[in-house]
Amino acid sequence: MQQLQNVATLPWIKGLAVMPDVHYGKGATVGSVIAMQGAVCPAAVGVDIGCGMSAVKSSLTANDLPGGLSRLRSKIEQAIPVGRGLHRSEVDPGRLYQFPTSGWGDFWSRFDGVADAVKFRRERAALQMGTLGSGNHFVELCVDTSDSVWLMLHSGSRNIGKELAEFHIGEAQKLPHNQGLVDRDLAVFVADTPQMAAYRHDLFWAQEYAKYNRAIMMALFQEVVRREFRKARVTFDQVISCHHNYVAEERYEGMDLLVTRKGAIRAGSGEFGIIPGSMGTGSYIVKGLGNTASFNSASHGAGRKMSRSAAKRRFSTRDLEEQTRGVECRKDSGVVDEIPGAYKPIEKVIDQQRDLVEVVAKLKQVICVKG
Q: Coil, strand or helix: which one is 293?
């Protein structure tokens, strides 16, 4: 509550919406939508700029899946580097299954305009394109209530987004107009300044990096599934993709606003979104209802109910094994902080936003790959 009240004191703010997965964050809560006029807070966006979800329904059904899923999980992990992993060489999007290559060249040409402090990361950024990362990022094979098989994943802008965010957060905190703030992590850039222009360039570039990162991973994932189920001649519907840590330029009540969704998805009327649970519970494909009271937004997931360190103190690997029973996934101490018990019940979170979204499909993972 204190963090929400702190955000509400910012002189540029025109509205604040709180999602049902809200929990403590850096400066601003995760699970909040911050609408400001002529300003943006880089710490409110977060260090994983453009983090979000992608999902696609396949022509496979649960009956097509083998009794054991460890081989398929291994194939996914071989195709998509996890943790701090890199590809050995840059992924050529032109060879990928149904990858949207339009704009790819222009995207990389704009890297020349990013902050000088991170330009030396160009090679690493290219090799991390199409990689998962760690923390709460995942790749999952899921089955919905109609027994259709879905591919789903969660990731963002990797190390390059993190370094761009940290650089700009530091720059914002030095500016004179931010010296009297109640929380230095709420430092903002304001319109018509070189600092704002520089941040907007890097922010939107990193958001695009995150979008392409998920698209490449999804294409690699689809290729794995097509090879493993060659006889089934697998086809896929259109991929659903959405950011949930990002800034968008939107208009409300006649005002042009910069809307920061920190742990929230856009849920405009008829727009598809993805709201995941944890590594042992269900996830939801939703369609937005266009509720302007929430700035056309909805939750980005279940939301944590305890910190990572608290989860490690409270739960054991035996608890993890029990709570992920039936899921082919890691069950070691390295992912105990991601145990389902550390998250709010996803069903309750969905029920609390029936005025924001309608449920299209409920998914349950059978494979979960973590970093």
A: helix
214's enclosing H/E stretch is helix 194-228
At 36 the three-state DSSP class reads strand
Residues annotated catalytic, as ranges: 300
DSSP character string of 96-130: STT---TTHHHHHHGGGGS-GGGGGGHHHHHHHTT
Under DSSP, the state recorded for 180 is T
Q: Which residue reads 């006649």 in tokens?
A: 254
Six token digits for residue 272: 């598809």
CB neighbourhood size of 367 (10 A): 19
SS3 62: helix
| pLDDT of 98 higher than 80 | no
Residue 126 confidence class, pLDDT cut points 50, 70, 90: very high
Cβ-proximal residues to 10 (8 Å cutoff; 6+ apart), any chain: 36, 39, 41, 181, 186, 188
| Confidence bin at 100 (pLDDT 50/70/90) | confident
For 17, half-sphere exposure in the C-beta direction (CA atoms, 13 angstrom radius) is 23
Tell me if 6 sits within 8 A of 182, measured CB to CB. Answer: yes
Mean pLDDT (whole number) for 252-281 = 97
